[in-house]
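Troubleshooting: if your tokenizer reports a length mismatch, compare your output against this known-good record of 120 residues.
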Amino acid sequence: MRVLVVDGANVVGARADGWWKDRAGAARRLHEQLMTAEVEGDIVLVLEGKAKAGVPAGRDGHVTVVHAPQDGDAEIVRQAHRAAEAGSQVTVVTADRVLVARVAKAGGTVGPSWLLDRLT
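Known-good structure output:
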């Protein structure tokens, strides 16, 4: 199985569309787009801070929303390693270089533009 772990803050921040004025709304729009994205496998969307108010935690179809209790990066690492340990092929979507290094053992990474190109 394929699992795509999405750094919600990093992907939302890759577009200069006024997301900083409404972080919860930006998270909700990203979730809606992920529901119809042309990607294979399951998606884990990790949200942190004010963005968590935009989408409830839990599974909705092939998208699971996880609310980071504190540090979003730590939760992304945890989700990536958990999926890899379960035998999934993991790809993390982020442009955060430190995070890329932290998830390297769990799988590969792609930048936000890769995902944004697949959203409707």
